[in-house]
Amino acid sequence: MKARLAQKILKAKLDYSEFRRYDFPYSGTQLYTASKRAGIPIRYRDKFCRNWRKVSKAEGKMQCKEIFKLK
Question: N or C terminus: fewer CB in 10 A for the chain?
Fold first, then answer.
């Protein structure tokens, strides 16, 4: 994986986890590979990448509504 693509994936993960974007177009395997390319230590990679999956914008909005108890 190229460094530029790894940065793009890690930025998307950060934006999604901070609620700045509603979709996450990458799988957990891609996130793991990007974190490996970025040099994140193994003990943090497992926590960092576990249970991540692709999420559409509609699913992301629904999750935000559930988290923040919005109607």
Answer: C
